[in-house]
Amino acid sequence: MLRIGHGYDVHRFIDGNEIMLGGIAIPHTKTFAAHSDGDVALHAITDAILGALALGDIGKHFPDTEAQWAGADSAELLSAVWEPQQVKGWTLVNADVTIVAQRPKIGPHVDAMRNKIAKLLGSHVDQVNVKATTTERLGFEGREEGVSVHAVVLLEKRS
Amino acid sequence: MAITLNPKLFAIIPAAGVGSRMGFETPKQYAVIGKKTVLEHSIDKLLKVSAISKIFVGVSPDDAFYPSLSVDSRVQFYSGGSERADTVRLGLEHLPEDSWVLVHDAARPFVDSSDIERLIASCLTKNCPGLLAIPATDTIKQSSDTNVKTLDRNTIWFAQTPQMAPVVQLRLALQQAQSQSLTVTDEASALELQGEDPLLCSANKSNIKLTDSHDWMIGQLIAKKQGLL
Lengths: 159, 229
Hints:
Chain A is of the alpha+beta class. Chain A has helices at about 40-50, 60, 75-85, 110-120, 140, and strands at about 1-15, 20, 25, 30-35, 90-100, 130-135, 145-155.
C-alpha cells in the first residue's frame, strides 16, 4: 500500500544568531519565534507523515498548550511520530522538501539536511531531497520576515 | 522504599489479547519501543519491585511470540482466557490463597516502580485493595439524551494499573461478577460490586495505556525520558 502526504509550515523570525532548519543549526542574524526549536522543515515533514496516514497534524498530538512537550525538540517529535509507524511496517519511499527563504542561503546546508532527515526517517539519503527557493523578494519570505516549508512524503507498507 | 512482606505478593499481567487493531503486525504487547517489546518493558517495571516474588504473564494459547522473549526467572507464562477477566482468574489459580496480587496492564510500560511500591505499602498498611489512579484536572461533562451536566472533578479519578487485592478477595469478586454476567473492565470494579472501596493511590501521568496512534507517539517521548530507547 502506498500513501502520500503533504505538510506546510511557517515560522516567523525574531532577532537571534542561528536557526534550526532540517535538523541543522545555521548561523544567521535571526532565529525563529517558536515554542520548540522552531525547525519549520522538520515540522512540515512531520505533518506530511501524519497527513499520509490520516493522523491529523502535529498540533493535535503535541499542542503548544502542553507544557510537558515545550522542551521536546523538533527531531524528537518527528521520531515520536515516525517510530511507531515504522513498527507498523511503514517505510519511506521518498521525501521532497521545499524551503522558501530569501535568506539565509540554504544551498550550502542542503546535503547536511538530507543526511540528517534520512537518518531520522530510517532511509537512505537518496530517498530525501531538499531544495530551496527565494520568492524574488515577494511576500513575507521575500521581506525576510520568516521561512515557509512544503514537504511531500510517499510511504509504503508491504502486506 | 524497602517493604518487609508477610504475606507474599505476586503480579499478574493479562497479555492474552491477540487483537492488532492498531495496525501493528503483531499483537500490540509485542510492538517494540526502543530495544524491547511493550510487554517486556511492563515486566521490567514490575521486576524492579523486589517485594513481588513472581510475575505471572497470561498469554494466548496460540501466542507464537512469547517463547522468544528473554525474561527473568521471576517470570512465568501461563495460558490465558478469551477475556481479560478470564485471564486474570486463570492467573489467580497459580497463587497461594494467603497472598496478595497486583494486576497490571501489559500496555502500561511506563509505570513508575516507586508508584507501585507506594501502592503496595498503602494497601498493606490499610489492609485494603487499591489501585493507581490520576485525579482529573479537566472539567468533566456528563451527557445523556436529554441533558448535559458538569461533574465535581474533585471526585473524579482515572483508573490505571497496577490494581492490588488479596488473592481470595479478587478471586471471589471476579467469580461473582461472572456468575451475574456483569461486565467488569478492571479488577477494582469487580471488588466495588462486592461493596469494597479500593484505595485510590495517585500515580505519575506517564503511566499511560498504549491504545491509539496518539498514545504511541506520546509513548515515544516518555520512553526517551525514561531512557528506554
